[in-house]
């Protein structure tokens, strides 16, 4: 057969039709061919627009190399099929941006081993009533859609591959195709897109990956079913549903998604079974809007790479999880907004860095027979209208078992919390909650910690081995009936109301309350399931007058400008107090301060003295100092930061809250850092309790300037900034002399001069600690003195007390 010719083997019923012929062009061969004829095309490039109107077989020659027959017209459709033809082993090229390379309009043709390379509207387009069977075909179309099924088209695509598409890899609008073991990759917009009412798709064993956009999109009343499919490595969401879309995922694997693994909204419905969602940057399941719902059974969601909840339900949507497992995520389930609901049955929520279940803004969550382990907080019902039910659930190895705050009112039945690092159940800020048959075992804090007079109801609850006590209740707090706890440390006492009684014969070490109001033996001071305070707290000098404290301030080495600032502020407060006593208006003086400067310049000491001065003037009740830093205020899970900040503020009530290195609460690359929550909480507390606590924030000058801009309310709360300058050599020498005098040492001949030279030459890099450096220098001299004197057989008073230049440590290397 000559190059560029077409051999036609006629296969008609009549004997005279069973013959062969050769034609110079494909068009001529097709014109002569009829149903059943076989057209074998010689290798070559055919610049023709072919139309198949009969049930013929069109194929490349047997044994020829792949792609040896190229159908490549200069414009228009390369191949149009309007019959149940068979097309094999051809290479189709399209150059018309307005037309597909292969157009299938009628019949049930069969295509196999085609390669479509085009820069046109679509590589393969199926429309009308066509139902092709397409096997092992490859489509590459960097300019448009890979494969499009439109307007009632359908068909089956087996082991096909879209290797590149400038738009969707596989697009369905009004059609109903079936994909089996296909691959779609390097597409733009979506790997598979199913859009429009009446559109449907079924995919079995397919893979969608390397998509610049979403992996699978189903929208505008379309429906799809994916079974044993994989979606991964997209730049957008893995799977999206929008506007009454319906999708079923069974046995699928969605992974390595930088955004939401699955996002659905606008009344869409998603059903998942035996599906895995892993390594996603935002939500594993993101469910929005009234009427939108997801139902998941035997699914696994894990290994989040971002800082977002694994399952997010909001704006009135609903989610149902049955026999699912969520693990290694920042938050497992977050339900918010009135009308939103989540139902979780027989599921595991494990290794959750923050909160396993959060319910907010009037949402509802129902958990039955679930297991929560290794989480920051087991469940948190956050605010008014938020509630739901936890029944027959276990919570183990968490910071706090269940938190109820700000008017939330859940029902908890037979919930067991084991080994929490803080409280088992914590209620504050107007939270309520009904607790029936709940248990706390092995808490490092309290079993039940109910603050602020919250009117929770406890019935038949029990605590065991709770380090700080089984129950900690504020006065006029919850109602408890039939609750028990072991050990003498149980803090539950009974305040009998009408008709109430503490049963006689209660077991020793167990306090039982029946129909009574529970109160505490000592009032709870602060809200929050927090560890024992790590912050340092310094008591004010008892009864010292302002003059005495100011005298101690004046005795500090250096700090002349600081002393002037504090005296000026103190004078303003004192005169204001006297004017009020005289019936005159007093100028408003904001007492909160910013201390800036390097470490070791006396900021903490001055803060402590400032608190004492204000107490002596009657401005503060106690004047004590509570010193905290970021680690004391910022929690490891959502919500614990606000609680820790409230707790620190409460301990400082009547005194000074000193926040060292405050700028660490707002790092420059903070992202979703919880430090901002501490700042927001602090600003509100300063406003709500403006006369109860004086707040001083301290840190390096430049960093503190940035800190004052992180919240609009921060700068307005702090009226005055006091700068602590670095100590000079003579001031450092004076500190060493004071240390020596205090510890009964003396500086020998030449030692003061040697120290002055030492501090002059001492590198002033980041490690320089000002007064701390002077004290460390003195301690080093004492150690070297001890090593020297210990070698003497006998030592008199001079030998035991005199420090010489030889006792000075070596100068550190420059930083």
TrEMBL record:
Keywords: ATP-binding, Nucleotide-binding, Repeat
Domain Carbohydrate-binding/sugar hydrolysis stretches: 41-173, 313-474
Domain AAA+ ATPase: start-end pairs: 589-729
A Pfam family it matches: Beta_helix
Matching InterPro entries: AAA+_ATPase, AAA_lid_6, ATPase_AAA_core, Beta_helix, Carb-bd_sugar_hydrolysis-dom, CbxX/CfxQ, CbxX/CfxQ_RuBisCO_ESX, P-loop_NTPase
Family membership: Belongs to the CbxX/CfxQ family.
Protein name: Right-handed parallel beta-helix repeat-containing protein
């Amino acid at each position: 057969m000559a190059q560029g010719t077409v051999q036609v083997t006629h296969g008609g019923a009549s004997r005279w039709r069973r013959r062969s012929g050769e034609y110079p062009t494909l068009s001529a061969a097709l014109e002569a061919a009829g149903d059943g004829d076989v057209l074998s095309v010689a290798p070559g490039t055919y610049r023709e627009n072919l139309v198949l109107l009969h049930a013929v077989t069109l194929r490349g020659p047997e044994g020829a190399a792949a792609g040896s027959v190229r159908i490549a017209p200069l414009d228009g459709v390369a191949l149009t099929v309007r019959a149940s033809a068979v097309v094999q082993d051809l290479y189709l090229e399209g150059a018309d941006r307005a037309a597909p390379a292969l157009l299938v309009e009628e019949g049930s043709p069969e295509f196999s081993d085609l390669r479509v390379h085009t820069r046109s509207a679509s590589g393969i387009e199926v429309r009308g009533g066509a139902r092709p069977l397409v096997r092992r075909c490859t489509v590459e179309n960097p300019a448009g859609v890979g494969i499009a099924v439109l307007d009632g088209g359908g068909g089956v695509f087996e082991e096909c591959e879209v290797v590149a598409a400038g738009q969707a890899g596989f697009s369905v609008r009004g059609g109903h195709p079936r994909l089996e073991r296909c691959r779609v990759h390097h597409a733009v917009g979506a790997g598979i897109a199913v859009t429009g009412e009446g559109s449907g798709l079924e995919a079995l064993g397919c893979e969608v990956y390397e998509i610049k956009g979403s992996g699978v999109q189903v929208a505008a009343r379309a429906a799809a079913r994916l079974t044993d499919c994989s979606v991964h490595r997209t730049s957008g969401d893995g799977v999206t549903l929008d506007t009454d879309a319906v999708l079923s995922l069974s046995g699928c694997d969605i992974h390595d998604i930088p955004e939401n693994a699955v996002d659905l909204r606008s009344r869409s419905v998603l059903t998942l079974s035996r599906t895995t969602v892993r390594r996603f940057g935002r939500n594993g399941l993101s469910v929005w809007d009234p009427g939108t719902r997801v139902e998941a059974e035997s699914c696994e969601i894990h290994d989040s790479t971002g800082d977002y909840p694994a399952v997010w339900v909001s704006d009135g949507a609903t989610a149902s999880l049955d026999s699912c497992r969520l693990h290694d995520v920042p938050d497992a389930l977050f339900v918010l907004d009135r009308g939103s609901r989540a139902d979780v049955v027989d599921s595991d929520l494990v290794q959750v860095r923050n909160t396993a279940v959060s319910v907010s803004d009037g949402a509802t969550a129902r958990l039955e027979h679930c297991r929560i382990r290794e989480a920051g907080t087991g469940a948190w019902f956050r605010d008014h209208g938020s509630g739901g039910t936890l029944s027959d659930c276990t919570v183990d190895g968490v910071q706090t078992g269940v938190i109820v705050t700000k008017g939330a009112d859940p029902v908890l039945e037979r919930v067991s919390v084991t080994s929490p690092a803080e409280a088992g159940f914590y209620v504050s800020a107007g939270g309520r909650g009904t607790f029936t048959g709940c248990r706390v075992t092995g808490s490092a804090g309290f079993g039940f910690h109910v603050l602020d007079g919250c009117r929770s109801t406890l019935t038949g609850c029990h605590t065991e081995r709770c380090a700080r006590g089984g129950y900690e209740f504020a006065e006029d707090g919850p109602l408890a009936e039939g609750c028990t706890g072991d050990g003498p440390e149980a803090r539950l006492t009974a305040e009998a109301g009408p008709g109430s009684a503490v049963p006689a014969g209660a077991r020793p070490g167990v306090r039982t309350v029946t129909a009574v109001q529970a109160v505490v033996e000592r009032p709870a001071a602060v809200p929050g399931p927090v560890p024992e305070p790590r912050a340092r707290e310094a008591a004010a000098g008892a009864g010292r007058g302002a003059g005495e404290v100011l005298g101690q301030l004046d005795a500090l080495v250096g700090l002349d400008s600081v002393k002037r600032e504090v005296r000026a502020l103190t004078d303003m407060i004192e005169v204001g107090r006297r004017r009020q006593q005289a019936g005159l208006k007093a100028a408003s003086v904001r007492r909160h301060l910013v201390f800036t400067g390097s470490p070791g310049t006396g900021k903490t000491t001055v803060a402590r003295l400032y608190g004492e001065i204000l107490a002596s003037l009657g401005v503060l009740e106690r004047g004590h100092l509570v010193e905290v830093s970021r680690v004391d205020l910022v929690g490891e899970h959502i919500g614990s930061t606000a609680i820790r900040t409230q707790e620190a503020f409460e301990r400082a009530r009547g005194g000074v809250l000193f926040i060292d290195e405050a700028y660490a609460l707002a790092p420059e690359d903070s992202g979703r850092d919880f430090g901002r929550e501490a700042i927001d909480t602090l600003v509100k507390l300063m406003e709500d309790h403006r006369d109860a606590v004086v707040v001083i924030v301290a840190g390096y000058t430049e960093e503190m300037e940035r800190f004052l801009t992180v919240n609009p309310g921060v700068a307005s709360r702090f009226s005055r900034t006091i700068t602590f300058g670095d100590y000079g050599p003579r001031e450092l020498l004076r500190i060493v002399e004071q240390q020596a005098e205090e510890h009964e040492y003396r500086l020998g001949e030449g030692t003061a001069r040697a120290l002055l030279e030492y501090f002059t030459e001492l590198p002033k890099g980041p490690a320089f600690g000002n007064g701390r450096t002077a004290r460390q220098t003195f301690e080093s001299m004492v150690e070297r003195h001890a090593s020297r004197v210990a070698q003497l057989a006998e030592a008199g008073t001079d030998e035991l007390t005199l420090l010489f230049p030889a006792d000075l440590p070596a100068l550190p290397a420059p930083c």
